[in-house]
Amino acid sequence: MITEAQLVANLKSESTRHVAFNELVSQYKERLYWHIRHIVKSHDDTDDVLQNTFIKIYRNINSFKGDSKLFSWMYRIATNEALTFINKRAKQMQVSNEEVQNLAIQNMQSDVYFEGEAIQLKLQRAIAKLPEKQQLVFNMKYFQDLKYKDMSEILETSEGALKASYHIAVKKVEDYLLND
C-alpha cells in the first residue's frame, strides 16, 4: 500500500498523475460517496456531487499543502460541494435548504438504491431538521464513525465544539424519534 505522502507526490507529478489519480479514486470513492450521500440524500445527486468533488481534487491537488491529511482535505472539498449543491437546488426551487432535504427524503422511498425501512426514513427526517453544522457532525460521527480529531480538520472547528454539537444533535434526534 502506497503512503499518503507518496500518493500526493505522484498526484503532483505530471508523469505519474493519471495513475495516482486512479489510485486515489479507487481508494476514496466509496467513503466520499457515503459522506456526500448523507448530505444530499439522493443517489443520482450524490454521483454528480462526487464527480464534481473529484474534478476539484484533480484540478487543485497542487494547492494541497499537507497541513492536514489528504483525507481531511478531500472531505472538506466533498462537504463544500454537497452544501453548494443543496444551496443551488434551494435557490432554483425557491425554497429553503431544509425543504430541499425534505423533498430528497420523500424521494428516497422510490430510489432504487435506498434499501432502508420506515425507521431509517424517520431518522433521515430527524437529521434534516438539525441545523447544517449539527447535520454534518451527526452524519460524520454516527454513520461514518469519524474521530473528532479528523472532523476538526475537515470542518475547521475545535474538537470541543464538535463534541458539543454532536451531543446536542443526538438529543434533538432522540426527541424527534420518540415524540413524532
TrEMBL record:
Tree of life domain: Bacteria
UniProt KW GTP-binding keyword: no
Residue ranges annotated for the RNA polymerase sigma-70 region domain, each copy included: 24-91
One Gene Ontology term of the molecular function aspect: DNA binding
InterPro entries: RNA_pol_sigma-70-like, RNA_pol_sigma-70_dom, RNA_pol_sigma70_r2, RNA_pol_sigma70_r4_t2, RNA_pol_sigma_r2, RNA_pol_sigma_r3/r4-like, WH-like_DNA-bd_sf
Keyword Ribosomal protein: no
Keywords: Sigma factor, Transcription, Transcription regulation
Pfam entry (one): Sigma70_r4_2
Single GO BP term: DNA-templated transcription initiation
Residue span(s) of domain RNA polymerase sigma factor 70 region 4 type: 121-172
Family: Belongs to the sigma-70 factor family. ECF subfamily.
NCBIfam families found in the cross-reference section: sigma70-ECF
Record's protein name: RNA polymerase sigma-70 factor, ECF subfamily
Organism: Bizionia echini
Phylogenetic lineage: Bacteria, Pseudomonadati, Bacteroidota, Flavobacteriia, Flavobacteriales
